[in-house]
Design goal:
Strand content: under 5%
Number of strands: 0
Radius of gyration: 15 Å
Shape: globular
Distance between the termini: 40 Å
Largest sheet: none
Order of helices and strands: HHHHHHHH
Helix content: over 70%
C-alpha cells in the first residue's frame, strides 16, 4: 500500500503534476517516509526531488530532520531551499543545532547565507529558555 501511494505520487510529479503535497502522503503511516527517502536518493529530476522534500517536511515530524539536513547538500537550489523551509518550520532547538552543524561543514557561500538566515528565523521563534 505504501509503495503504491509513493509510486502514484512520483508518477504525477514526473508528469508535471506539481501540486506538491499529496494528502495521502501526509496521512500515510510513517513507513511512507522510508519509501520517499529511497525515491529521493534515486531521483534524477530536481523538481521531483523538491516535491519529495516538501512532502516529507509537510508531515512536520522531528524524525525527518536528519533527511532534511542531508537534503541541504542537494546540488539543486530549489531542493536545498525546500529542505531549509522544512527545517525552519520544525523550528526546534535541535533543528537549529542541525543547521549550525550544516553551516560548519563549509557549504558554498550562497547556501551558507541561506543557512544563516534560517538560523536567525528559528532564533526569533524559539522560546528564550530553549
Amino acid at each position: 500500500m505504501i509503495d503504491d501511494i509513493v509510486a502514484a505520487a512520483l508518477e504525477r510529479w514526473r508528469a508535471g503534476g506539481f501540486d506538491r503535497i499529496e494528502c495521502a502522503l501526509v496521512r500515510a503511516p510513517r513507513d511512507v517516509v522510508v519509501s520517499l527517502t529511497e525515491a529521493y536518493r534515486m531521483e534524477p529530476d530536481a523538481s521531483v526531488r523538491e516535491a519529495i522534500v516538501y512532502s516529507i517536511w509537510k508531515r512536520r515530524e522531528s524524525e525527518n530532520l536528519e533527511f532534511l539536513v542531508d537534503a541541504l547538500r542537494d546540488p539543486d537550489r530549489r531542493v536545498w531551499q525546500e529542505a531549509l523551509d522544512g527545517i525552519v518550520t520544525l523550528g526546534s532547538a535541535h533543528a537549529r543545532a542541525s543547521l549550525v552543524g550544516a553551516r560548519g561543514s563549509d557549504p558554498p557561500e550562497d547556501r551558507r547565507q541561506w543557512i544563516d538566515e534560517a538560523i536567525e528565523q528559528i532564533d526569533e521563534n524559539l522560546p528564550s529558555d530553549a
